[in-house]
Amino acid sequence: EPEVTQTPSHQVTQMGQEVILRCVPISNHLYFYWYRQILGQKVEFLVSFYNNEISEKSEIFDDQFSVERPDGSNFTLKIRSTKLEDSAMYFCASSGRGNGDTQYFGPGTRLTVL
Amino acid sequence: AQKVTQAQTEISVVEKEDVTLDCVYETRDTTYYLFWYKQPPSGELVFLIRRNSFDEQNEISGRYSWNFQKSTSSFNFTITASQVVDSAVYFCALSEAVTGGGNKLTFGTGTQLKVEL
Fold first, then answer.
1. A48 contacts in B (CB within 8 Å)?
2. What is the DSSP string of A59-112?
3. What is the distance between the alpha carbons of residues B61 and B42, in angstroms, rounded to a whole number?
4. Which of A4, A37, A69, A101 is deepest in the core (most CB within 10 A)?
């Protein structure tokens, strides 16, 4: 069964460093998303991406964040200068269509900023 | 703005008990979609069910059933004869219809279900 994959599973970085989180969505999906979950809290939407551009972003997704689909399979989230409060689990998701279609999530990347 | 409320923070039951997880949502749209996801201790988010706002039929899948009531803006989830493997955090989520582009999911705060022997 097709699934979303994410690498690395755990990333530890120093405050101020740049990190890139990688995702491989399900191959025939067209819509891609990033969410984050601070430990013990709810899952929060960061950004959605379709047709090589951002279709929606949340207030959390400020200038320190960027997304890219560098090739036909990968979808990345970059945080330029990490802060302590960026420590969280980051989930990538994809869906085949937009409106209301089921989003399938990857296993997540746990980001720890020291 | 869309909002999802899961008032039950944590529920503990003994195996084989039935348990209902509550979900109340708010939206101004007439077209929207509701979901339940399961997050086991391993941390991944597992899709359980999707419902659109025009389909109020209740659904049963094995030991799982869902009760969607637009009149009370609720989409409750019942596990019958619970098992230890059902122990997880369960999230209810909502998305509104969006033209051209993906639609974000708004999650509730989750309900931690603990099933004990």
1. 101-104
2. TT--TTEEEE--SSS-EEEEESS--GGG-EEEEEEEESSSTTPPPEE---EEEE
3. 23
4. A4
B30 and A100 Cβ atoms separated by less than 8 Å:
no
Q: Do residues B103 and A48 lie in contact, with contact meaning Cβ atoms separated by under 8 Å? A: yes
d(CA A69, CA A46): 16
Query: B16: distance to nearest CA of chain A, Å?
Result: 27
Phi then psi for residue B35, to 5 deg, are: -140, 155
Helix/strand/coil for B71: helix
Nearest CA in chain B to A29: B102
Residue A89 at interface with chain B, using a CB cutoff of 8 Å = yes
The answer to whether the bond into A8 is cis (omega within 30° of 0) is yes
Count of residues in chain B: 117
Hey, is the C-beta of A76 within 8 angstroms of any chain B C-beta?
no
A42-100 confidence digits (pLDDT tens):
999 999 999 899 999 999 999 999 999 988 889 999 999 999 999 999 999 999 987 78
